[in-house]
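[09:14] KT: can someone run the structure on this one? pasting the chain below
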Amino acid sequence: MKSPICEMLGIEFPLLAFSHCRDVVAAVSRAGGMGVFGAVNLPPDRLREELTWIDAHCGGKPYGVDLIVPNKLEGKSDAFSSDALLAAIPREHKDFAAGILATHGIEPGDLDSDRSRNVEFARNMRADGAASALEVAFEFPIRLVANALGVPPAVMLEMGKRHGVPVAALIGAKEHAIAQVQAGVDILIAAGGEAGGHCGEVSTLVMIPEVCRAVRAMGASTPVLAAGGITTGEQMAAAMAMGASGAWCGSVWLTTTEAETSETIKQKMLVATSRDTVRSRSRTGKPSRQLRSPWTDAWEREDAPTPLPMPLQTFVSEPALRRINKLAETGHEGAKQLATYWVGQGVGLMEQAMSAAQVVQQFKEDFLTARERLVTAFDET
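[09:31] RB: done, structure tokens below
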């Protein structure tokens, strides 16, 4: 296809797949799109291990890395201290999370120990932690580096330019797009409120033309990737008709055979409707869309504590959710009810389990069908 994204990244089809699963990343790249590996949870040695595997299994095709370095982060201006972060979590929040588990027949156990073992991931969301991850990432022939929250830190922009690798950033509003272009970002990923994970409030249908017009008004040529609820090639074609140069998708890969999601979560997604998600701060401290469950409902109650700022709320929720998911796979009914995962409103269109390569192929076929539909409509007039 003739798309600025294809030319910039050296790919055949302008479909980018964000995934925490290396198998999905490699499969999408081999199929002609581009896999982008979500690396925020990994220390440098584990990131090197995962990228080594991806590089060996993507058939020489381009792939990228995604990090999360938010502009606003609790304790960001201080020297990193895992003890200080853990000490900042109120007992009220810990007890509330444990209470949800107990109500559903799950023994909370020692969640504090789980928090201590996983607190280091917060280092990756700081500029110094991102620099360590980037040093590892640029040992490999990556073709894209993306930041998921806010303007990328200076170190990411500098390293991207030094290595000749485009830097992308996710945005949720027109003003974000303007700030990113002014900062020197190479690719904008406009994520509508339908998106899974962290997202804003503006719908994709409104966001794409609004951002594309804002970029043009600045005299810039920064390409825009559409994101948010996009799970079919028809939606991708619609976004490109509005000015996008391609699509960035995350949710659609979660029900693939390669995905990191558990069988419990996959089955819940396959039967979910577009109304079965909720946008909430209860998981990370920032608004993120996920499957609705008794876990998410509990945090919306009047007696629920106000979610903490990122990353503190993550330390409250993730240890409990990991316990829930582990028990759900054993058939524990309470855990199966509570189980949740990030996913967008496009989950209502995800009705059949397929391989990642089959999803890419379906995108291509649906895209062509949509294009032919438009051409036919114009011919008839």
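[09:33] KT: thanks! Residues 356-380 form the longest helix (25 residues).
[09:34] RB: yep, looked fine to me
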